[in-house]
């Protein structure tokens, strides 16, 4: 598989001072790894919740929504029934709105069912500081009072800044702070599924 | 969507197609929030927005207030009657005093054209024009465009008719700027005393033949006729206005089948529009009110959502 | 006490001297003009490289005293006039109370005597309280020192009353100055009516509100064989009417304000209340017509309509801010920049517009020319100096000028009134 071998190395020039950054990219998961992880997560969800009763999936825009869709496909294969699924846009709940200077685009939140008394599985691609999940939890609470909220992520890369942990993890990837984990999915990126770690080092 | 760089919303004159589209797209996302049980998101938590209204308004003011509150901003209302303006303070001085209390935005309505512009020149707070004199009412035009797009699926290529007192209407002016920027054809129609020929310089066409205008238009937008126009000698009588220019079921018989009727409100039923038409199947007047909150949320978010 | 001006390039309305001359003023009167005068009794000014004009005369200013002393007083107005190169000014009667009786007129005369720098001549009202209802006591006003009569700020809207005023004033021997504005037509207009006012959503004042009164007063003056002077003509159509009237021999004269040849209605686009003025700033075409009228003599003179307003008044919204702008300190700069530089007027023609013609219209003896025996009123101008109009430099009590920030050419170097230096740069 050679999943840990550097796949490409290129140089980009950034900023007025033309500082040279060298970016090293390492593929951590490929298409099959990702599919297996999703299937395993689907099984774990069903096992823990004893079936699909009261279960629903909420994906966080944009890649979490795609992953939720895929988990739901697996659930349907296993159980014969899909569960209700929604998309959550957390832009308006971000705690860093007043610290950034590029306007984030607000997209629609699509949750067409009542969350009250539901077992909600929140799905995202990468779990990092936990702040996105914090925003998502706030947003979900505004939609009703679920019986429980559980968290499923494809990658947990550590470095938490809030007391948040995932219930279902596709892969734990120990990383350093100057690394960047990127999940690439066919639906959102138009490229073959993979998870890559980029390393930025100042030369 | 293009990157948003505006600090104030004063006018649609000079606003680009991309900027208008950004507002309309953003508003689409915000419309859903108002349908939730918890109609509130924390995007503007900690921000203070002052509604500085030198002119009476129920609709626009409460729409802005709801929009601000649904974004978790704190709001304060200042109505001119209670303010020190009546004691001879200059507008600018009043606004400076408000800004000194560290507010983030001032939503201002004033009977004199240009006041929001002047405030924006002197104050750091974001200035949002909620209507100035006969000049500009940008959020009304934006919500009108949002409603047209929602109901008819597009704006470009549509024929939009604005009817009535064009001379004194900020809604007409802002809609002419916005709609022509978005590629619609705008026709204005009304009594010659209330339709200044100079309006054609803004890109609208004048046609005094109301029947012809009704026949060819996709959108009809009768404006509110102020009762005092008769006293000011602009009209022989309101009765004649209602008869010649009021939109009623009879006049609508020749209209397009999917025509929509809009009105910036509040309507003078039986004057510029009959009750039957205002409540009828072509009317989207209440949708405009609903969309007003979403559009104003979008505007507040775009202006105040991030640090500048 | 004498004053000697050396190396003066003398400009009169009829010609500009080719060689510098010396001018000796004694006891307030020009004693001698010669190529070289030796005199060491009094003061000497060297005017080398500068132009020396007969003292400028502004027949249209507002000094706000009595009543609005927070905007301007006779004293601060006089200082501004001296800085602007003016040795004689006439102040309009729309004070509070109005100059419509002897006591107010004398108060202004006495105050200007106390200050003593330049000549201030009050203009009395045509109608009591400027209300267009009853005529003022014109003999008394003339006797109290009023040089002319006007309801400026208001038009004499009653045509019958204007007829009576003309007939009576002719007998009294005093000139009437009309502020041409049909108040019904202009009602509440804050700028010129047209495309710009429509786009800005500001209430327009149609130009015909001016030309209708110009036409009416021409007809009255013709019919009753009376004189009439038109204040601040701003409109192409008014110019045409006046040109035609003059050709017919009707006794009309007219003035234009610097802002009406230097600015257009475009100025209002920034909602600058300092550009709100009556009559309003007009179109490019009107500006062109006013300039042409100054050139061909249809408009006889330049008068500033210096109208000070306090900052707090001008900080109001466009509908409520008062009309008017100050003009004394920028008049020469604007005239040089807008009229001399583009070769619309020659220097002698400018002297005609700013000194000789106003003296002639008002019948000021001894003024309007530099000749032996005339009054020792002189304005020394540096024609090449470029300077920026700055708010902090105004000596007027108010600074409501739309010209702030503009660079002008031509600056007053010194003003001499009755042989006394009343301003020196």
Secondary-structure topology with pairs:
The complex is a heterotrimer of chains A (203), B (308) and C (425).
Chain A: E1 6-14, E2 19-29, H1 31-49, E3 55-60, H2 63-79, E4 85-88, E5 119-127, H3 131-142, E6 148-156, E7 168-172, E8 179-184, H4 186-189, E9 194-202
Parallel strand pairs in A: 3-4, 3-5, 5-6, 6-7
Antiparallel strand pairs in A: 1-2, 2-9, 8-9
Helix pairs in contact in A: 1-2
Chain B: H1 17-33, E1 48-53, H2 59-70, E2 74-79, H3 91-99, E3 105-110, H4 115-122, E4 126-132, H5 138-152, E5 159-163, H6 170-181, E6 185-189, E7 205-206, H7 210-216, E8 219-222, H8 228-231, H9 238-245, H10 249-252, E9 260-261, H11 275-278, H12 285-304
Parallel strand pairs in B: 1-2, 1-3, 3-4, 5-6, 5-8, 6-7, 8-9
Helix pairs in contact in B: 1-5, 1-12, 2-12, 3-4, 5-6, 5-12
Chain C: E1 2-10, E2 21-26, E3 29-34, E4 43-46, E5 51-54, E6 56-61, H1 74-83, E7 86-91, H2 102-115, E8 119-124, H3 138-143, E9 148-150, H4 159-172, E10 175-178, H5 183-186, E11 191-192, H6 195-200, E12 204-205, H7 208-223, E13 228-230, H8 236-247, E14 252-256, H9 258-262, H10 284-296, E15 301-302, H11 311-314, H12 331-340, H13 347-362, E16 378-388, E17 407-417, E18 420-424
Parallel strand pairs in C: 1-4, 1-5, 6-7, 7-8, 8-9, 9-10, 10-13, 11-12, 13-14, 14-15
Antiparallel strand pairs in C: 1-2, 2-3, 5-16, 16-17, 17-18
Structure description:
The complex is a heterotrimer of chains A (203), B (308) and C (425). With 203 residues, chain A is an alpha/beta fold. Chain A has one domain: Rossmann fold (3-Layer(aba) Sandwich). In chain A, 26% of the residues lie in helices and 33% in strands. In chain A, the strands form 2 sheets. In chain A, strands 4-3-5-6-7 form a 5-stranded parallel β-sheet. The longest helix of chain A is centred in the N-terminal third of the chain and has 19 residues, at 31-49. Residues 1-20 of chain A have low confidence and may be disordered. With 308 residues, chain B is α/β, with parallel strands linked by helices. Chain B contains 12 helices and 9 strands. Chain B has helices spanning 17-33, 59-70, 91-99, 115-122, 138-152, 170-181, 210-216, 228-231, 238-245, 249-252, 275-278, 285-304; strands at 48-53, 74-79, 105-110, 126-132, 159-163, 185-189, 205-206, 219-222, 260-261. A 5-stranded parallel β-sheet of chain B has the order 7-6-5-8-9, sandwiched between helices. The mean pLDDT of chain B is 92. Chain C has helices at 74-83, 102-115, 138-143, 159-172, 183-186, 195-200, 208-223, 236-247, 258-262, 284-296, 311-314, 331-340, 347-362; strands at 2-10, 21-26, 29-34, 43-46, 51-54, 56-61, 86-91, 119-124, 148-150, 175-178, 191-192, 204-205, 228-230, 252-256, 301-302, 378-388, 407-417, 420-424. Chain C starts with a strand and ends with a strand. Chain C has a single domain, classed as TIM Barrel (Alpha-Beta Barrel). Chain C has 425 residues and is an alpha/beta fold. The chains are: A alpha/beta (203), B alpha/beta (308), C alpha/beta (425). The interface between A and B is medium-sized, with 24 and 26 residues.
């Amino acid at each position: 598989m050679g999943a840990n071998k550097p796949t490409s190395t290129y140089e980009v020039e950034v900023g007025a001072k033309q500082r040279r950054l060298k970016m090293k990219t390492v593929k951590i998961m490929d298409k099959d790894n990702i599919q297996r992880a999703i299937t395993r997560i689907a099984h774990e969800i069903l096992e823990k919740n004893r079936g699909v009763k009261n279960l629903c999936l909420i994906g966080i825009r944009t890649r979490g929504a795609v992953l939720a869709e895929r988990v739901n496909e697996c659930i349907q294969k296993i159980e014969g029934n899909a569960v209700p699924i929604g998309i959550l846009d957390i832009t308006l709940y971000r705690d860093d709105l007043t610290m950034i200077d590029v306007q984030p685009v607000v997209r629609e939140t699509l949750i067409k069912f009542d969350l009250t008394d539901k077992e909600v599985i929140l799905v995202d691609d990468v779990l990092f500081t936990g702040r996105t999940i914090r925003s998502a939890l706030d947003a979900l609470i505004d939609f009703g009072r679920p019986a429980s909220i559980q968290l499923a992520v494809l990658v947990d890369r550590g470095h938490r800044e809030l007391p948040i942990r995932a219930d279902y993890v596709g892969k734990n990837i120990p990383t350093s702070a100057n690394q960047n984990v990127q999940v690439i999915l066919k639906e959102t990126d138009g490229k073959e599924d993979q998870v890559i770690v980029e390393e930025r080092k100042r030369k | 969507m293009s990157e948003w760089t505006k600090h104030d919303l004063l006018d649609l004159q000079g606003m680009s197609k991309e900027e208008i589209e950004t507002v309309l797209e953003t508003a689409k996302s915000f419309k859903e929030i108002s349908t939730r049980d918890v109609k509130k998101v924390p995007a503007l938590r900690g921000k203070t927005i002052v509604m500085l209204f030198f002119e009476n308004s129920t609709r626009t003011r409460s729409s802005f207030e709801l929009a601000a509150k649904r974004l978790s901003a704190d709001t304060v209302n200042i109505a001119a009657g209670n303010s020190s303006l009546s004691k001879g303070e200059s507008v600018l001085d009043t606004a400076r005093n408000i800004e000194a209390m560290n507010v983030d935005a001032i939503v201002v309505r004033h009977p004199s054209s240009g006041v929001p512009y002047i405030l924006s020149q002197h104050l750091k707070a974001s200035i949002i024009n909620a209507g100035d004199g006969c000049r500009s009412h940008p959020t009304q035009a934006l919500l009108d465009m949002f409603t047209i797009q929602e109901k008819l699926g597009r704006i470009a290529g549509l024929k939009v008719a604005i009817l009535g007192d064009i001379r004194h209407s900020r809604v007409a002016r802002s809609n002419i700027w916005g709609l022509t920027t978005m590629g619609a054809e705008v026709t204005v129609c009304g009594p010659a005393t209330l339709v200044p020929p100079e309006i054609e310089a803004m890109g609208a066409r004048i046609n005094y033949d109301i029947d012809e205008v009704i026949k060819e238009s996709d959108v009809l937008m009768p404006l509110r006729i102020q009762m005092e126009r008769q006293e000011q000698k602009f009209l022989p009588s309101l009765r004649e206005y209602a008869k010649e220019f009021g939109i009623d079921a009879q006049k609508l018989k020749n209209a397009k089948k999917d025509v929509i009727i809009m009105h910036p409100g509040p309507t003078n039923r039986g004057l510029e529009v009959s009750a039957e038409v205002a409540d009828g199947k072509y009317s989207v007047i209440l949708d405009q009110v609903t969309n007003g909150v979403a559009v104003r949320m979008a505007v507040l978010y775009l202006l105040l959502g991030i640090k500048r | 006490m004498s004053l000697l001006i050396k190396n003066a390039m003398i400009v009169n309305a009829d010609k500009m001297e080719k060689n510098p001359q010396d001018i000796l003023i004694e006891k307030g009167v020009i004693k001698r003009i010669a190529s070289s005068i030796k005199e060491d009794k009094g003061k000497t000014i060297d005017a080398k490289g500068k132009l020396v004009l007969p003292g400028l005369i502004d027949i249209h200013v507002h000094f706000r005293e009595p009543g609005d002393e927070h905007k301007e007083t006779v004293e601060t107005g006089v200082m501004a006039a001296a800085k602007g190169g003016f040795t004689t000014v006439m102040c309009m009667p729309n004070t509070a109370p109005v100059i419509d009786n002897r006591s107010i007129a004398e108060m202004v005369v006495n105050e200007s005597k106390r200050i003593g720098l330049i000549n201030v001549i009050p203009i009395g009202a045509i109608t009591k309280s400027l209300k267009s209802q009853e005529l003022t006591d014109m003999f008394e006003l003339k006797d109290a020192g009023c040089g002319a009569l006007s309801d400026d700020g208001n038009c004499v809207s009653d045509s019958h009353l204007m007829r009576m005023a003309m007939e009576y004033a002719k007998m009294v021997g005093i000139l009437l100055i009309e502020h041409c504005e049909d108040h019904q037509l202009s009602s509440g207009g804050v700028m010129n009516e047209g495309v710009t006012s429509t786009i800005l959503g500001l209430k327009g004042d149609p130009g015909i509100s001016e030309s209708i009164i110009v036409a009416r007063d021409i007809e009255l003056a013709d019919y009753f064989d009376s004189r009439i002077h038109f204040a601040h003509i701003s409109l192409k159509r008014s110019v045409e009417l006046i040109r035609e009237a003059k050709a017919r021999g009707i006794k009309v004269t007219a003035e234009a304000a610097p802002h009406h040849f230097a600015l257009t209605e475009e100025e209002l686009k920034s909602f600058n209340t300092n550009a709100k003025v009556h009559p309003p700033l007009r179109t490019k075409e009107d500006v062109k017509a006013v300039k042409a009228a100054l050139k061909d003599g249809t408009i006889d003179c330049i008068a500033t309509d210096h109208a000070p307003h306090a900052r707090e008044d001008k900080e109001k919204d466009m509908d409520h801010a008062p009309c008017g702008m100050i003009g004394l300190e920028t008049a020469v700069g604007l005239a040089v920049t807008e009229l001399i530089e583009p070769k619309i007027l020659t220097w002698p023609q400018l002297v005609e517009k700013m000194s000789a013609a106003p003296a002639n219209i008002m019948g000021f003896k001894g003024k309007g020319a530099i000749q032996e025996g005339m009054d020792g009123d002189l304005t020394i101008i540096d024609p090449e100096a470029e300077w920026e109009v700055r708010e902090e430099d105004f000596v007027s009590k108010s600074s409501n000028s739309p010209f702030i920030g503009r660079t002008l050419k031509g600056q007053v170097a010194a003003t001499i009134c009755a042989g006394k230096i009343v301003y020196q740069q």
